[in-house]
Specification:
Layout: H1 2-29, H2 36-67, H3 72-76, H4 79-89, H5 93-120
């Protein structure tokens, strides 16, 4: 179930990325120099849509894995797509900084636990 959900999530993200590229290349072929502000607006919203989509899929997969009882190793693999999606959605650095620090705390905690286990043996 977990592997299937992960594969479905990866396929959905790949399709969304391909559609975004298709829309981008269609617009490139019809580009006029006077439409630069309009292009910037479109590019901003394509980035926000893609970021929302990626972050949403990563959050749903995180929830599915957490409900299934996955450990921190399995959950931390989805933090990077969540961070990437949120950085595309929100242009502000604080969102990414907070989640990056959360990931850092999880990794440091795991390293400390492994060190304590090796000392105990």
């Amino acid at each position: 179930m977990n592997q299937r959900a992960q594969n479905v999530g990866q396929i959905i993200v790949a399709i969304a990325f391909a559609l975004s590229l298709l829309i981008f290349f269609i617009n490139v072929t019809n580009f006029r120099g006077t439409e630069v502000p309009q292009w910037e607006f479109y590019l901003l919203w394509v980035g926000r849509f893609t970021g929302t989509f990626v972050a949403g899929i990563a959050a749903v997969l995180l929830l599915i894995r957490a409900i299934g009882g996955a450990g921190t190793a399995e959950l931390s693999s989805l933090i990077l797509p969540l961070l990437a999606g949120l950085s595309l959605t929100s242009g502000h650095w604080s969102t990414v900084l907070v989640l990056g620090l959360l990931l850092l705390c999880i990794l440091v905690g795991r390293i400390i636990r492994q060190t304590q286990k090796s000392k105990a043996e």
